[in-house]
């Protein structure tokens, strides 16, 4: 995976293609190939591998610079070149020349969008686990759910990836006894989204933290999950089960459900 | 950006290509297109846009299913199809048929690798800002630097993206007076990596949090940064300046520098 930047795009590219093959691949990321010299060095490294292992390395390239690209294309690997492949047809369609400029793939650290992401991460940390009610009105979404249902990683992912300010509140036995959501949340009903989880799985997760505790017992987990789901139904809160979902899938669903999808950039 | 999964790959793909054009694009993510019906619906939506706006939509597709793909290819957008384009040459090279299986792009939430990532996120949260010395021996990396130099978002990114267990410790005036690293860290010297930052930028960041404080003053920021850099030099700690770097760039550099790059998956 050869890139002139961090290699994150090349890596996403490679993983998505390779996942389609029932085969294990040794993966090497070569980031910051941002000069002709480094391109030569990389090409030599690839040729060397080909000689010693007698298997053609598969190269996922996102190099933008034409000269560096030319050098890499002449190595003995199989080149899958994302830019070359798609930029030319797009230039024709748009009737516009691309910039072939290095390092434009990711947000610049000085950009507004980047600053928003970092601000969102700080917001999510400050509003983790119901820690603070301050500035809750500026939250884009407030996740609720029982302890260990996946709220924290999801809020951090939403913040880091999308600049979404996400707070999260635990639903605890106190709330179930009162049969009410934490009162702070009353005025933010339209921002709330719920996570639930299979009690069996919850019990496993909690047992890793506090083995043998009442908190982790299957019985207690069943009680909490039942109560939380009943409350969310009663309050008309949209929710999903996090049991078999990755944070990427949970985050994507939340963005769709609460219409946070930002379609203009 | 049309995907049968979360659309994260399609989005990364689109952003990296579009960033090469000096033009603003309205971007719409259409995730979970995992049936023939949804493919029809998406194709119709694209055709409708073409009719109303009279501009051919550009479609970044990562659909895997052959029938869904066929439907999309017959719409009136410009189709840039990552799978179709790269999977066939790879099948030939590997002499192996791909699975054309939906939803294989991202880690399954039940996989070991995914669990490691979530465990790493929990580790990073528990070891944020020197909060805990417990299990520090299982950290992959320990970031040090003055308050607000970018340690927290970086540790979270390393955890979330790479499953790297990253702790972080602030360097504070007490440490500068003693002219020593926090003593807890003595035995983990080889895991330490430093972040520094331009004092001017640091002062701006701190002023957003505590306007007009001594903590945020340029004079104090200069003092802390000078002392921290002197300490890192004295202790032989590798470090970088986070001033103009994104968390993606910082994380990539750290992985390279401390040889955390995992090249076998």
UniProtKB/TrEMBL annotation, chains A, B:
What InterPro entries does UniProt report for this protein, alphabetically? Kinase-pyrophosphorylase, PSRP
Top class in the EC scheme: transferase
EC numbers listed for it are: 2.7.11.33, 2.7.4.28
Q: Does the keyword Nucleotide-binding apply?
A: yes
Keywords for this protein: Kinase, Nucleotide-binding, Serine/threonine-protein kinase, Transferase
GO MF terms listed in the record are: ADP binding; ATP binding; phosphotransferase activity, phosphate group as acceptor; protein serine/threonine kinase activity
Per the record, what are the reactions this protein catalyses?
Answer: [pyruvate, water dikinase]-phosphate + phosphate + H(+) = [pyruvate, water dikinase] + diphosphate; [pyruvate, water dikinase] + ADP = [pyruvate, water dikinase]-phosphate + AMP + H(+)
Binding positions for ADP per the UniProt entry? 145-152
Q: Which domain of life is it from?
A: Bacteria
- Hey, which family's this protein in? Belongs to the pyruvate, phosphate/water dikinase regulatory protein family. PSRP subfamily.
Function of this protein? Bifunctional serine/threonine kinase and phosphorylase involved in the regulation of the phosphoenolpyruvate synthase (PEPS) by catalyzing its phosphorylation/dephosphorylation.
Q: What is this protein called?
A: Putative phosphoenolpyruvate synthase regulatory protein
| Organism taxonomic ancestry | Bacteria, Pseudomonadati, Pseudomonadota, Betaproteobacteria, Burkholderiales
């Amino acid at each position: 995976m050869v890139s002139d930047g961090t290699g994150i795009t090349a890596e996403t590219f490679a993983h998505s293609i390779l996942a389609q093959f029932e085969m294990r691949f040794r993966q090497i990321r070569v980031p910051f190939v941002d000069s002709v010299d480094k391109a030569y060095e990389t090409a030599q490294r690839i040729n060397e591998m080909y000689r010693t292992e007698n298997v053609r390395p598969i190269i996922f390239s996102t190099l933008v610079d034409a000269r560096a690209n030319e050098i890499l294309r002449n190595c003995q690997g199989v080149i899958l070149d994302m830019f070359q492949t798609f930029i030319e047809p797009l230039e024709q369609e748009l009737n516009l020349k691309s910039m072939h400029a290095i390092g434009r793939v990711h947000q610049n650290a000085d950009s507004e969008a980047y600053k928003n992401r970092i601000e969102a991460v700080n917001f999510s940390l400050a509003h983790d686990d119901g820690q603070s009610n301050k500035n809750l009105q500026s939250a884009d979404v407030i996740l609720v759910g029982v302890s260990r249902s996946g709220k924290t990683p999801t809020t951090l992912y939403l913040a880091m990836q999308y600049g979404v300010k996400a707070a999260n509140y635990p639903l605890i036995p106190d709330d179930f006894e009162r049969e009410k959501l934490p009162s702070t949340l009353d005025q933010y009903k339209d921002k709330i989204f719920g996570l639930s989880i299979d009690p069996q799985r919850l019990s496993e997760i909690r047992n890793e933290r506090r083995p043998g505790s009442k908190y982790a017992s299957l019985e207690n987990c069943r009680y909490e999950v039942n109560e939380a789901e009943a409350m969310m139904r009663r309050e008309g809160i949209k929710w999903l089960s996090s049991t078999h979902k990755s944070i990427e899938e949970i985050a994507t669903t939340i963005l769709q459900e609460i219409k946070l999808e930002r379609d203009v950039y």
